[in-house]
Amino acid sequence: MKILYLSPEMHPYAKVGGLADVAGSLPAALADRGHEVVVVLPKYGGIDVDEFGIQPTDLSARFHLDGRPAGGRFWKAAPRPNLDVYFLEHHDYYAREGLYGGPGGDYPDNLQRFANWCRAALELARALDWPPDVLHANDWQSAPAVIYLKTLCAADPFFARTKALFTIHNMAYQGYFPKSLLPATGLPWDVFTMDGVEFYGDINLMKGGIMYADWISTVSRTYAREIQTPEFGCGLEGVLEFKKKRLSGILNGVDYSEWNPESDPHIAAQYSARDLAGKARCKAALQEEFDLEARANIPVLGMVARLVEQKGIDLVAAILPDLLSEHRIQLVVLGNGERHYQEILERLAAEYPHALGLRVGFDPPLAHRIEAGADMFLMPSRHEPCGLNQMYSLRYGTPPIVRKTGGLADTIVNYSPRTGKGNGFVFSKPEAAELGKAVRAALKLFAERKAWTAVMKNAMAADFSWDKSAVEYEKLYRQLAPEPAIKKATARKRKRP
Predict the structure, then answer these.
(1) ∠ CA(245), CA(218), CA(192), 5° rounding?
(2) CATH number of 2-253+466-495
């Protein structure tokens, strides 16, 4: 199949969050399965073209938005067979270090920036003479591509067979813009209705993506159910309930070529479920890196997260003083985000310098060292569409402590000392007391070395590779855009001796 994949970020080229990891892994897994995949990204100012072998092309997109010349020139990388990545160059829109904004907040022209990118992506397919079977758009930034496909391109024979899949990665970010900016997208006013992008008098791009797509997916089965409720739907629960027959949840996967303690170049020692000796060395190295006492019998809790309310930072802060008075433990935290939560953790780190290590910032190699060196991993999220760190933790033998929500509920099974089954520790309510109870259960088991080794090995046996997830997407693509009967017959004929 021919798959045109739009994501506003993609590892290793440009990353803000987990969406980049998904975009870096799923297209590659699909390409390895024999599909032709074209990914389109904006050419952000922070992308190093020399490092990634990105070359200019003769391809460009030229059109007008709101009467103004728009589009841009394409650059290209070909990281593997069947996978091409194109980068749209437009100096005024994308030659900035930030993807979505800077220190002052979101860029005020984000609607124009991402509308231009989406329209240009469709024009790229035409320039390549490559009619896609499926347009796979991700999150609100790429929603305009779905809307363009179903409106401006609706009568275009080139896109006659192209179906649109819109994937929601996080309902909390929907792409709101004033109604007055609609002409900047080049879309007709008849999209500004209750059945289109209109939402309480303004533009909601995520709503538009949902309404115009042939199918909607999200990143876990549980989250697909949750977003149809007021608690998680962020105002669009009614729209999603209306579209529920065309909504499914497909769990994200993990790139085990990058997240694997047997081959990870970022950690102090490599190890496996068969030989865990290296994990002890990773723990000692992590304790030393954070200037904590390097003792094997002191449990180390790790946390890598955005410092925002969603991630339950306040719950961790609320239980930490009592935990430290009851138990000899250490906590290491890596993340950045809202100043309020950063200050809370900084105060705690100053109060407990020998128990809490804090690094504010974005440091991927350190994230690997925390996964490998911690004994257990904290993810007390209020909501978590999928989550990736809990799956990384499993592979590194670092049992996660999670709230039962979204992808956390779909991946982590509470350990039972009676049956010996389970790969982590789960609590239900987003309350400090509930988190504290789960942490204490984990600490109690940690003291029982035989039982703790069992839960570690259960965790490491879990398989959340992209191979499984790619098969699910492949099935969905084929459901949306089945091969024409004449094409199938030709393929069968070719197979005959």
Answers:
(1) 70
(2) 3.40.50.2000
Domain boundaries, the chain: 2-253+466-495, 277-461
- Asked whether the predicted pLDDT for residue 487 surpasses 70, the reply is no
| pLDDT grade for 490, boundaries at 50, 70 and 90 | very low
DSSP structure class, residue 483? P
The model carries a pTM of 0.91
Confidence tier at 323 by pLDDT (50, 70, 90): very high
Pick from 203, 19, 235, 40: nearest CA to 110: 203
Please determine whether the domains at 2-253+466-495 and 277-461 fall in the same fold group of CATH: yes
CB 40 within 8 Å of CB 4: yes
Measured from the Cβ of residue 478, the count of other Cβ atoms closer than 10 Å reads 13
- For residue 226, give the nearest of 236, 211, 215 by alpha carbon: 236
Quote helix, strand, coil % in the chain, to nearest 5. 40, 20, 35
* E-strand stretches of 94-251: 101-102, 105-106, 134-138, 163-168, 176-177, 198-199, 202-204, 215-218, 247-249
Which helix (H) or strand (E) segment is 220 a member of? none
Average pLDDT score over residue span 130-155: 97
Q: Between the CA of residue 338 and those of 305, 343, 431, what are the distances in Å?
A: 11, 9, 20
Q: The CATH number of 277-461 is which of 3.40.50.2000, 3.40.140.10, 2.70.70.10, 3.30.565.10?
A: 3.40.50.2000
Q: Are 364 and 390 in contact (CB under 8 A)?
A: no
Judge if the upstream peptide bond of residue 8 is cis by omega within 30 degrees of 0. Answer: no
| Residue burial 22-53, b: 16+ Cβ < 10 Å; e: rest | bbbbbbbbbbbeebbbbbbbbbbeebeeeeee
Residues 290 and 369: their CA atoms lie apart, in Å, by 11
What value does the CA radius of gyration of the chain take, rounded to a whole number of Å? 24
The tokens describing 164, both together, are 């649109």
Over residues 152-177, mean pLDDT? 96
pLDDT digits (tens, 9 = 90+) for 359-394: 999 899 999 999 999 999 999 999 999 999 999 999
Give the bridge partners for 72, in sequence order.
61
Tell me: the pLDDT tens digits for 179-227? 999 999 999 999 999 999 999 999 999 999 999 999 999 999 999 999 9
- Show the tokens assigned to 40: 């389109």
* pLDDT at residue 447 is higher than 80: yes
Q: CA separation (Å) from 304 to 90, 156, 331, 380, 464? A: 34, 47, 11, 11, 19
Instruction: For residue 492, name the pLDDT band (cuts at 50, 70, 90).
Output: very low
